[in-house]
Amino acid sequence: MELIKKALEFENRKMRFPTTSDRILASREAKSLILDLNEIYKKNKDQKIMDIMKRLTAIKQRIEKRLKGKPLTAA
Question: pTM (2 decimals)?
Answer without folding.
Answer: 0.83
